[in-house]
Design goal:
With 305 residues, this protein is mainly beta. It has two domains: 141 residues, Immunoglobulin-like (Sandwich); 113 residues, Immunoglobulin-like (Sandwich). It has four helices and 23 strands. The strands form three sheets. Strands 1, 3, 7, 8, 9, 11, 12, 13, 14, 15, 16 and 20 form a twelve-stranded mixed sheet that branches. The two termini are 31 Å apart.
Length: 305
């Protein structure tokens, strides 16, 4: 599921390049199709989310060692700004061991919000490599992040031949920028709360019927439990018709996420659905360390206004 999420993000980036070239942004085209939502759960969240400054600053960092394990050293060198991708962390990877290794970021969070991570760098024995871990613009915007203050990264080391993982970090490497304030990420409250159990809270913000793929449902989740969890949408139906809804969030303990549930326009067309009136689904939550189910939710119905 993680690989699928990265693939979707890559395709979105390609779309962003073409959108920028034509003089219009994807966020501008999607915002006009956003619809309010309501739920029969009766758990409407209050509208008290804080607003952020529109000024985007490029932070600086002190050179910081993020990983030093088994002869592999990853050092954060600087923050770079790439207009299409977004800001990123330039890292130097040094392989001081006698074997080839692939260094990956298995998870990343910015200002307390889980984001898609992009690092998969093969470095041969006794060699070095430069790489950039990107913080994607569209994901930062969903989470309401204007300035990058703190980045948490979980690393793993993989044998490029056998694909066996020799090391995977339990705790993240923490990188704080010049804009760090120490303020904790606020819980999102603008939308419809559909789940609040076992330390997991889920809020649906809006339904966007003019997204890149057809329709997307923006879902906020926070993990207040002591476990790392994966959260997925199951048994999705729209206007009473069963339809594939693609949603998966990997949320570390103590962190939050904003992710889209994607509904392809072809699926709506195949079922003669021109206007989404309601969405019915369940959520499956499991422990990503033990793969044991934490809960399977009751059905939730989201009415689209």
């Amino acid at each position: 599921m993680k690989n699928n999420k990265i693939l979707v993000a890559l395709v979105i980036l390609v779309f962003m390049v073409f959108a920028l070239g034509s003089g219009s942004s994807s966020s501008e085209s999607s915002s006009s199709g956003q619809s309010n939502v309501s739920s029969n759960t009766g758990n409407d969240a209050s509208s008290s989310s804080s607003s952020s400054s529109t000024k985007k600053e490029i932070p600086t960092i002190e050179e910081t060692v993020l990983l030093d394990q088994d002869g592999i050293v990853v050092t954060a060198k600087e923050i770079v700004d790439e207009s299409v991708w977004g800001q990123g962390i330039k890292v130097l990877i040094e392989n001081n061991s006698s074997r080839d290794v692939t260094v990956t970021a298995t998870a990343m969070a910015v200002n307390g919000y889980m984001l898609t991570d992009f690092l998969y760098e093969k470095v041969t024995a006794d060699a070095k490599a430069n790489a950039v871990i990107h913080c994607l613009n569209n994901e930062l915007e969903k989470a309401g992040i204007t300035n990058i203050e703190e980045v948490a990264i979980w690393f793993s080391l993989v044998d490029p031949e056998s694909y066996m993982t020799s090391y995977s970090s339990d705790e993240p490497a923490i990188l704080r920028t010049s804009l760090y304030t120490g303020a904790e990420a606020e819980a999102f409250s603008d939308g419809i709360e559909v789940i609040n159990q076992d330390g997991i809270r889920v809020v649906v913000k809006y339904v966007d019927e003019k997204s890149i793929w057809g329709t997307s449902v923006l879902i906020y989740a926070e993990n207040n439990s002591n476990r790392n969890v994966g959260l997925s949408a199951e048994n999705v139906s729209i206007n009473g018709f069963m339809i594939d809804g693609y949603y998966y969030a990997d949320i570390k303990s103590g962190y939050k996420s904003f992710d889209d549930m994607t509904i392809f326009s072809s699926s709506l067309k195949d079922n003669d659905i021109e206007k989404i009136e309601n969405i019915k689904l369940t959520f499956n939550c499991y422990d990503t360390d033990s793969y044991r189910t934490v809960f399977e939710s009751d059905y939730v119905t989201i009415d689209v206004e």
